[in-house]
Protein: Folylpolyglutamate synthase
Organism: Linum tenue
Amino acid sequence: GEIGNSPRSYQPTSVFQASYIQSLPRHQRLRFISTRSTLPAAVVVSSRRRLFEYCDMADGEKESPAAPTSYDEAMEALSSLITKRSRGNNSNKGNQFDLLFHYLKILELEDALDDLKIVHVAGTKGKGSTCTFTESILRNCGFRTGLFTSPHLIDVRERFRLDGVDISQEKFLAYFWWCFNRLKTTCFTLILYHIHAAEFGRYGQERTTEDVPMPPLFRFLTLLAFKIFSAEQVDVAILEVGLGGRFDATNVVQKPVVCGIASLGYDHIEILGDTLGKIAGEKAGILKRGIPAFTVQQPEEAMCVLEDKASNLNVDLQVVPPLDVNLLNGQKLGLEGEHQYVNAGLAIALSFTWLKRTGHLELANQDHTDSLPEQFIKGLTAASFQGRAQIVPDQYVDSEKDGDLVFYLDGAHSPESMEICAKWFSGAVKGEHQSDKAKPQVSSSTHQLKKNIMQVFDPSSAERVQLEILLFNCMTVRDPELLLPQLMKTCASQDVYFKKALFAPNMSVYHKVGTHALPSAVPEADLSWQLTLQRVWDNTMQKDKGREAKQVNHVAEEMKDDTGKGGGSLESSSVVFPSLPLAIKWLRDTVRQNQSVRLQVLVTGSLHLVGDVLKLIRK
C-alpha cells in the first residue's frame, strides 16, 4: 500500500513511515519520491541525481552494516556529530529533548531500554566515582555489568565498560556502525521529501532539514551505550549523567531500578543556574515517580530542593552517611582520597537497593551497618577510575633512581573539587616525604631549607629534595579566581607549597574524537588564556604565600639555575609553555640534569588536560 493519495497531502509523520519507505527496493523509493513531487521538471531531475546517490549509499550500508571498519574512520564519523554551539549557550538547555525518544524508535531500543536494570546517578562531584564503586560491587557479586561514564581521557571506548573492562575495538566498531548507519539512513529519509524546499525555499514552511538532525555527540554515545548494554545482555547498567540531569541524554530512561545524587556544588552555572537551588532542581530531574533514591549530605539550600522534588514524585529519598572505614576490615578503598568514603557510602546504598529490587535477597537482606558482605569489600577496594586521584610515576626519565618524576592527576574543575584535590595531593606528597629514608633530621629549619636548595644543583649529593610543581589548565568558562586561590590555600594549610606553576594549553581539540584529536605538529597557540591563569597565580602568590615559601624563594635567588631553558629556572614562580609536550619535556630535562631533585607534579583543572598528559607520558 501507499502512504498517501496526493503529492501535496503526504507528510512522513512518523519514523515508522520513514523506515517503511527506506525498506522499499531502490527503484520503488525513487518512483514514490519522484511521482509525488510538485516542483518543476528540472528540479526533479536534479534532485533525482542526489536521490540515486543517496539510495546507492544506503543500499550499500544495508549490505555491509559494519563497513567501513577502520577505527579512525569511525572516529571521523563520530567527530561529525560534535556541534559548534557554545557550551555556555543557553539554547543547549533541553534542546529538542523529545527527539531522543524518536532515536530510540529508529534503533528499536524502546523495549530493550525498559528491560535494562539501571542505576542512574547525577551530581556535581563524585558521580563518576560513585558509579565506579557501584559497578565494582555488583560485578564482584557475580553480575554482568555495563558502565557508562564521561568524559573519556584517552580513548572513547573508556566510556563503555563491560565487566569492568573497556569495550573491545571489534565490538565497538560493530555496534557503532550499526547505530550510526541506521540513524543516518532514517534521519535522511525523513527529510528526503523536502530536499527541494531546502534548496529553493518554496515549500519549507512546515518541515525543514533541521527538524530531524543526527543526534549530537553525547546523545549518540548515550544511545550507543543502550545498544551495547542491551546486545551484551548485561545484568545491570550503571549510567553516569553527563551534565545536569533533567535534560541530560541519559534521562530518557523512564524506569530505573534506583537513582542516586552525589555531592552538589557550583558547576556549569551558565547552563544549570547560578544558585545551588537551581542546580539541585536540574539534578533532581532524574528522579522518577515511586523509584527509590539516595543522596549524601548536601548544603541546606540544595537539600531543600531535592526533598521538595522527591516529595512531589512520591520518592523515598534517603540521605546516606559516608562509609565507616572500619567496615573495610583494615583494607583501603580502591579510589584515593577521604572524599571517596562519601561516594562509597552512596554506592553501597545503591547496590543494596538494586539487589533487593531485582530479587537477589540473599545479599540484599544482610545488615550492612555493622559489617559488609565480602563481595562489597572486594568491590570497594578493587575499584579503579582513571584521572581521579591517580598517581603515575614517569617511566621515561633516565635517572639514577625510580620515582624522580611523579604525576598526581586529578580532573578537579570546580572550587569544591579543587579543595578535595588539594587535600588528597597534600596528604599523598607528605606521605612520600615521611617515607623518604634519606631525609635527615635537623633542628634548624632555615639551615635545612638552604641545604635542600643546594642539593637541587649538586648532582653529587646523596640526598634528594622533593619539590611540588603545579601543571594547570582549565576551560575558559571556569573562573580561575575561584580555583587557583582555593588550591593554593588548601595546600598551604597542609604545609605544602608549590615551587613552580606551569600553564599550557590542552593538546586535544574539541572538534575531533580519537587519536587524531592530538595534532602531530604543535600549532601556533593562542596563549592569552594561559597568561591570564599565570597572572591569577602570581597575584595570589604575592598575597598569600607563607613565610616558609618566602624563605625558599629567598635562598633560591642566591643559587642560579641554568637548566630551565625554554621554561625558566626553578626559582621563578610560574611559566607559560606554548604546548603541553614542551612542559613535559622541561620537567623531564629538569630531573635528568638535577639528579638530586624529585619532582611531584599535580596535574589538575581539567579532565581534558589530565587525559592529554596521560597520552604523553604513556607514549
Notes: The first helix runs from residue 15 to 23.
